[in-house]
Every structure is written in structure tokens, then in C-alpha cells.
Predict the structure.
Amino acid sequence: MDIGLIGLGHMGTPVARNLIKAGHRLTVYNRTRAKAEALAGEGAGIAPTIAEACRAEVLITLLADDAAVESVVFGPGGVLDSLPGGAIHLSISTISVALSERLLQSHQSRSQVFAVATVFGRPEAAAAAALFIVAAGHNAALAKCEPLFEAIGQKSFNLSERPADANLVKLAGNFLIASVIESLGEAVALIRKAGVDPHRFVEILTGSLFAAPVYKTYGTIIANEAYEPAGFKMPLGLKDVRLALAAAEALNVALPVASLLRDHFLTGLAQGGAESDWSALARLSAKNAGL
Amino acid sequence: MDIGLIGLGHMGTPVARNLIKAGHRLTVYNRTRAKAEALAGEGAGIAPTIAEACRAEVLITLLADDAAVESVVFGPGGVLDSLPGGAIHLSISTISVALSERLLQSHQSRSQVFAVATVFGRPEAAAAAALFIVAAGHNAALAKCEPLFEAIGQKSFNLSERPADANLVKLAGNFLIASVIESLGEAVALIRKAGVDPHRFVEILTGSLFAAPVYKTYGTIIANEAYEPAGFKMPLGLKDVRLALAAAEALNVALPVASLLRDHFLTGLAQGGAESDWSALARLSAKNAGL
Amino acid sequence: MDIGLIGLGHMGTPVARNLIKAGHRLTVYNRTRAKAEALAGEGAGIAPTIAEACRAEVLITLLADDAAVESVVFGPGGVLDSLPGGAIHLSISTISVALSERLLQSHQSRSQVFAVATVFGRPEAAAAAALFIVAAGHNAALAKCEPLFEAIGQKSFNLSERPADANLVKLAGNFLIASVIESLGEAVALIRKAGVDPHRFVEILTGSLFAAPVYKTYGTIIANEAYEPAGFKMPLGLKDVRLALAAAEALNVALPVASLLRDHFLTGLAQGGAESDWSALARLSAKNAGL
Amino acid sequence: MDIGLIGLGHMGTPVARNLIKAGHRLTVYNRTRAKAEALAGEGAGIAPTIAEACRAEVLITLLADDAAVESVVFGPGGVLDSLPGGAIHLSISTISVALSERLLQSHQSRSQVFAVATVFGRPEAAAAAALFIVAAGHNAALAKCEPLFEAIGQKSFNLSERPADANLVKLAGNFLIASVIESLGEAVALIRKAGVDPHRFVEILTGSLFAAPVYKTYGTIIANEAYEPAGFKMPLGLKDVRLALAAAEALNVALPVASLLRDHFLTGLAQGGAESDWSALARLSAKNAGL
């Protein structure tokens, strides 16, 4: 399939590689052109402009935040102006529910198709084509994207016909991961202060009721106190919790644990944690405990 | 082995059955004698007094709370008075770290052995001999109890030589389960209010990063809003969170998520939830969201 | 002095009356013209457009929120386009720190003067010319506005030369008032459930350490459970706490009590409290306590 | 009147002085006898035992906590054993509601009278006979104690006939003071990080809606960051919040702000604040903000 891809960050680059490996004709665009050129040798076409990346059946955006997506889509010569009628804009970025709804309306008014495929997994999982994919949009669009999902993920879920639902589920999922980090961090601070070995504690948890990837990944990081280099930086964690809170606020839903997470991320950042993994929430718990 | 067992509640009865099935000579004592007699037909001996249950190599207590354990152990004619020197008191109850430390000292002063084996799993898991066991105490004592662990659980962890460590890990573990319930409840309230199907949401979570028993069990209950009959009642949830907070307070450790859980359990109880499962925390989130 | 005033809501109307009473030549503009006409009989001139209200030495804006101020100031034919060079835009509205900073820059680039005078006090206090005023801006501008402050308030404070400081202090002050409401609401729920008379409780507090207007006003409302009609509606309370949180987030400052307030306001709104006074936070505490 | 007084700490000593000044015959008992002897020169009789202090019409206890009161009252040769029938035990200590109820029953069973007079005010206020007194108990008993209240306080409130109500109101009041400290601390952290002068901020608050002693006292301490020497130490603050939480828990009432206070006190203690004033909660907010 002819695919365009805009955004070659920590997630975009491995996704691009897996699409090429799966045999798709991929054209990439990145604001910093060097990152795009790195993929040329592996078979990617380089688009000098957003408009040229849009000459595709499916145009993927995988960008850092709302502002980046808005600038790429709504700017002059942007995706909205350039995507052919009937072509699909598949948004993989973690963005707000509100922006996702605006994108849907904007694309519909141009007879373009908008679909969302949010992904769970850190860069290693992206490299291993082992992402979990939560897709939403019209069935025909999702069916067309299915080969892409197979190329980049280990499993995909067709959630609903409303694209923004996939954004909300992604935000709710990241909220749940952050909750795991926070509660694990508090529990580990407690048992460490009592003199119990945190590695043994994590081993027991993940060997019993908590035998899930998220506990294994973060339990290990927290027991090792290995928050740098970051797999997912604290400011991104704050961003996602903020987006979950914003989506909830629009519906008058309180999320007390998310409020607490937001406060702890801010404190972590105020104390110099901008380059740390978001699991450094646990370092704050340890510090507060006097460890 | 000759085993005594005091306490035939939701957990004690299936544990007793599995000990008998594994071929141990079991003598049981229960304050309400009828529950003990129900097991007579299955091969258990009935002890008319605590003292007679204590004529054993290992005396197991599996009681509701600190008060019940204190009454059985420290009262006249209680475990402390009755257990032979060198015999083991194996405490399975979820009790405070402070009481566990007091039990250790009391038994040591009588040349009795005190060990702890806390368990993770609901009554169904106890019936299926599928509990997870966290044991702590002198190695010789734990080695002697190993056949009992095999009879009642699917897996046991030897944590450390200090019995109270196993109590702390149990409390920390229950705190983590309650945290999962709370954050799941908040996330489900959010996605339900946005019109997303909660069953599909739970399916996605447990089919990806959250593929752990605890998310499957509680995700299903919450999606079904099926909080009665209770597997583990709200007052017990409050009790365990309170014990975790007490253990943490003794060490000057703040557990903000546990504080939030405590508040939500109290609100649930004030609104009539005493007979509901502790996962009815999620009903409170739904109610607060106006669902 | 020649004064223009835009915004005749609950606060704007009594402020306008007091300016007229003090002998100033006042021209008013309101989107809904009827509210302006009501003041014509009292001596106010009616401006048919924003531009005509701007023909003044001091143009006051007293509007509901950021969006209203942005629309009045930045729109075509708005304040920025219309205010004479050297004239003062005095902003009394409770708006975000970020918007205040943007207003300062925009006015400076047009050689106009921007100053802020935020006020504490409910509509009754505005009617009685008993507001407390926190002013910030260049000293010359504040000196010129001093007669206006005397006309509408009982006391004014010259805070600093940076206008946005007055917005921040207003948000911090409203956060403190909301904190008083929340903690009073919790305390009253407790003593009421214990059978203590809440009126007596409030009388004791305000007759001893808490002899401040804010405790008298809100203590009485809460003891009487008289949340309607609202003096200051819950959505406005949420708005101000949200602005305080936003100002704090921009500086990486966590405000845990504000987070809790935000959650409680959202729950109050989800349960139908949009027309209630913001002190109906206390009704939520009572409800949660099963009262 | 013949008065006995047990407990000569920071509050007991000035209270004793004011009783002597008012002309009462005072006999004092203190575990550390030196503190009692210091008062001998001012006219106090020294009781070598608790029993001798109890030879009085009114026996006042003013002790640090539940444990101290229990030891003095229930021990052999204690208040319960020694107080004459019909004499009054007036408890001024900040103790739990549960202990107060137990004291009432115990004294009634001995035909002794139990009444409570809790006080608001720091040691300086005690020295100046400027305490606020909240009294509860049978009217006859309170009438008899009225001259004592006049000797030590500026104002007394007769709350109800149930002594424990005065304990609850004291705990609720201290909870409210701690809430003021916490929210002030957060607000000051915010405005300081924005570059606003905290002294000016406190001046504005206490010159307008927050013109109450509690804001003046703590606003000044916080603006000055002068947490040592302590007027009321952090462990005592934690104790009182804990007692408020316990009273609320017995009634299934959640106090979210109190939970937050408890967490922050624990963190303050874990970081070495045991000798600091309880208003050092504000230091934690500043630290968390990176100040």
C-alpha cells in the first residue's frame, strides 16, 4: 500500500521500519529532515513537504502532542489541504479527545477519512512490532488499515466507529499505567523503609496476582531505582494525565487518582525530573519517606 | 502431620478441606461450633476448646482481625498457654504488623515457634487450592510448613526470617489491589460517561498490558456492576487499608493513594455499602460522575 | 473622570452605580443592551458599540471569563483597536494569568496602558461599595484609578508594577476561600453526624480564632444548608480553581488542596449543582457522610 | 475554690499561674516534680501523689495525649480511685472522643462528675489568660467551673451536656487550623514562585476577607519561614489530625482534607521536622515547588 508517515520520533521511526519490512511503499516526512534521511537507506521515500507525504492511500501521523498535530494538519499546505478525497488520515499520536473530534469534522468536510489507532507499548515494543493497537473509525477504513496494524503490532482491537473513542481509551489506559506506577512506588517506599527487599517484593507481586507486563516493567525499574535514561519522560506522563483530566472535566467526571498523579508529576518536575522516566514518581515517594 | 486449625470462615473452611484432602490429621476449633461440625463428616477432628486444637505440630490461625487473634491467643486457656514448646503457630490471618511483632515475642518467650503465611486469593481460589502464599519465619519452621503450603496453594514464596514481613507484604499487596479497583473504577466511570462500552474496555486492557488476574477479576465485576454478593466485603477492605496506613504511619511513610482509598471506603460505608464487595468503590465513582 | 465600562453582570452593575454616585461620567456597554439601558435612568451613557465605550480616560472591563475578555478586547472594533493612546484599560475580571500577560503586551504595543484591579467581595459587598481591591500596574496608572477604587471599595492594596500579579493574588485568594468552604463543610459534616448543632459550632468558630468575614459568610450558609439562590455559582468556583491550577502548573507548583477542590466541584456539577452556590461543596460532604 | 491540677506542660503552667492569680487554692501534681516546685513560690501547693491532687472540688487534667490521661486516671491510686464523690474532673487535654466517652462512664459509675473544657490558643494566649474555652457537661458542673474559665480565658462557650462534644469540637477546630496552614502554605508557594512578595500577600489577606487571628498568626510565620522554635510541634499536629480522623472513622465520615494533612505531616516528620512548628507544612509545599 502507498503510505505516508509524518513524525519520526522514538515511536515513529520503529513504526516506519516495520511498515517497510512488511513491504509497503512508505514516504516519510519529518520536520528535522535528518531523521527522515536515516530511513532512506532502508527503502523509505523522503517527502520534502507535508503535501508530498499526503500523496498516499493512508497518511499516518505520529507526533508528540496536540500542538504538533494542529500545525501539521491545519497549517497552509498541511494535511487537510493536501490529502486526496477518500484517502485516510490515520492518527496514532496521543492527543486530546477534543482535537480528535475536531479532526474528524474537518476531514469529513473535505471528504477525507479520519481514523484513529492509538498504541500501547514503549519504543522497544514498537521496534519488535509488538505494540497493542486500539483502533476506532468506520469499519471500511479500519479494514483497509488492518495490514498496517499487523505490520507494527502484536494485536489490534477494533473499538468503535467513533475515532475519538480510541483516544479516550488510550488516555484512560495511560492513566491506569501511571496509577500502577504511583501505587507501586508508595508500596515499595513502605516495604523498603521496613527493611524488606524490593526486588523480592516485586518478584512476589508479578509471580502472583500482578502477573502483567505493566507490573513487570515498572516493578523492575522501581526496585532498581533506574529512572534514567527514560523510556517515557515525566513531562509526557504529565501531558497524558492532563489530557485524561481534560476529557473527564468536559464530562464532569472527577478522577481523584489522576489529580494526585498530576500533583506528583508537577512536584517531580519542580525538583528537576524533566529528563527522568515517568516512573520516577516512585523516587518522590521514596524521598518523601525519608529514604 | 498433626495440624490444629482455628477459624472456619470463608477462607478457613476451604483451607481445612484441602489439608484433609492432602492427608493431614486436622483438628479444628471454631467459636461457632456448627461450622466445625460441618467438617467432621469430611474427616476433621473437632476440638471443644482452643487448648485441644493446640495439641499439634502446627497450629494454624485464620481469623478475621486483630481482636479475634488477640482473644484466641492471649486469653486464658488460649494458644499461648496451650501450645507445646517447639510447636509452630502459623498465622494466616491478615493482621497488623504490630500484633505480628507482639506474637513473635510472646511465642519466643514460651519457646514456641511463630511463623506467618499470608495468602492472596479469594474464597474460590482457596477452594481450588490455588492461593498464593507469602511465608516468613525461621527457615526450619517454613520448611516444616511447606507440605501445608502445597496442600492449600498454587505457589509459595519464602520471604524472610522476620514473620511480620509477610504481614506487611500482604497489606502492601491488598493496598495495591484496592488501588487497581479504585483507578479502574475511575477509568470506567470516565469511558462509560463518554459512551464507550465498559466490557470492551476491560477486554482491551486485560488483552494487552494489564493481562493479570487482578484486572480480569475486578474489571469484570466493575463492567457488570455486580458488587453483591461480596467476595470480600467493603469493611474488610477498609480494615486492610487502615492496617497498611498504620504500618506506614509507624515508619513515617505517607501513602497518598491509601488515604484516598480509606476516604472512599468510608463514604461507601456511609452510603450503605457494608454488604457490598470492596470493588463497589467503583460504584461510588460512577455515582459521583452522575451515572 | 470619563470612564467606560464593559460588562454589566452581578458585579458590573453595582460597580457602575457606585461610579455614577461618585460623580464620574460613565458610559456603559453590555452585549445584552437591556442591562445597559436599565442604568440610563441613573445617569449612565449607553454605548452602542465597544468602540464608543472606549472613548474614555479609563476603560473598565468586568466580564465573566477569559473568552469574554478576549472577544471584547481582541475582536475587530474591540478595545485594542479603539482605546486612545495613553488611556488605561483597567481589568477587574477574574481571568487567567496568561491572558493578563498577553493583554499587557498587546496594550503596550499600542501605547495604551494596562492595569489590573481584582476585587474580593460578593455582589452585596459591591452594592455597598465595600469591595476589597488588589491593584497592580504602573504607579501613575494606579494613582489615576485611585478615585475609582474609592468609589467602589472599602480598601485598596497597591500590590506591584506587574498587572498579572493582581490576577494571581485574586486566584490564590479565591483558592483560599474555596479551601475554607471545603474544610468547613467536612468539619460540619463530622460534627452534625455526631449530633452537635452546626449553628453553635459556627458561632464558636467565628467567636474565637476564626473571626473573619469568610468564616461568617460561609459558616452561616453551610449551617443553614442554604445553597440557593447562589451568590457565586459552582461553575464559577470551578473556573477559578482551574485558573489557579493552570497558573501553578505553568510554574510546576502542585496545589493538592486545589486538586481536591476541583474534583469536588466536578462531582457537585455532575450531581446537578450548576445553579448552587459554590459553598454547596459542603452538601457533597454531608451526602458522602450519609447525612 | 479548692482546685487540683495535673499536668504542667507548655499550657498547664500558665493556666496554673492564672488560677492562682485569680485567688483559687491550687494544688499541682506533675510527673516531673521540678516543674511543680517552680510554682510553689507563686503560691501553689505541691501534691506528692495524684491522690493528693484529687482532694479538691475540681480536679483539672491538662496532659499531652490519651496515654498520659489513661495512666493518670485509670492507674492504681489514680484519679478514678481518689476523687471524692460529687467532685468534678475537668479535662482540658486534647484527647480522643472515645477516651472522653470512657471517662464519662467511669466517673459516673463512681458518682464523680466529668466535664470537658477544651481550649483554643497557643502558650502565649494561655499566659495572657486569653484562651477561648469550649465547655461541655452538666450545666451545674459548668456553672461551678465558670470562675475557672474566667481566670484562664477571654471567652467561654457552653456547648452541650455531653462532655465528648467539646473534645470533638476541639479536634474539628484544630483540623480547621491545620487546613488553613496547608492551604496558606500552598498559596504562598505559588505566589513566591511567581515572584510576588509573601509578606505583602499575607497583609492583603489579613486586611480583607481573612482578618482572623489564625491567618495573622500563621500567615506571618509562613511569610517569615520561621518554623523554629515551635509553638505547637508537628507531632502534636499529626496527633490531633489523627484523632479527628479516628472520630470521623467511627461515624463513617470521610475528611479528605484531613487525610491530606496526615500525609503531609508524615512526610514532614520523615524529613526531620519533629522539632518544627506544625506550620512547617508550608515548608514542604515550598520544597515541593522547588523553592
User: Anything to note?
Assistant: The mean pLDDT of chain A is 96.
